[in-house]
Amino acid sequence: MNQKQRIATAALVVALGSLSALPAHAGGKEKCYGIAEAGQNDCGNLAGTHSCAGQSTVDNDPGEWKAVAKGTCKDIGGLLKAEAKRRYAEQKNS
């Protein structure tokens, strides 16, 4: 592999890696809270206690989310962010 091929390969790896950091709403997706099973969340939670996928500890925690097809969250029993924040605050204060 010559130098130009190495540079092109490295650039491709960086470009593809940045695609995984796209927001949940990109590509027709939206964050749907309260549907993730323990260990199955897609990223950080509302509480800010973790910032990684797979770190939820409770099924259907209203502070945890998964990316779903836009417009389907309510249909599958999930919460959009504003409602999830309210529910999470209520759960925290009870």
Describe the structure.
This protein is α+β, with helices and mostly antiparallel strands and 94 residues long. It has one domain. The protein has 2 helices and 2 strands; from the N terminus they run H-E-E-H. A two-stranded antiparallel ribbon has the order 1-2. The longest helix has 17 residues, at 3-19. The radius of gyration is 17 Å and the shape is globular. Residues 1-26 form the signal peptide. Keywords: Signal. This is DUF2282 domain-containing protein.
Lay out the secondary structure.
Elements: H1 3-19, E1 29-33, E2 65-69, H2 81-93
Antiparallel strand pairs: 1-2
User: Helices and strands: which structural class?
Assistant: alpha+beta
Let me know the average pLDDT: 81
Oligomeric description of these chains: single chain
Q: List the total number of helices.
A: 2
Q: Kindly state the percentage of residues in helix.
A: 25-40%
Shape call:
globular
Major sheet details:
2 strands, antiparallel
Q: pLDDT under 50 segments (min length 5)? A: 12-22
Question: What radius of gyration results from the CA coordinates?
Answer: 17 Å
Order of helices and strands: HEEH
Protein name: DUF2282 domain-containing protein
Signal peptide: 1-26
Organism: Litoribacillus peritrichatus
InterPro entries: DUF2282_membr (IPR018740)
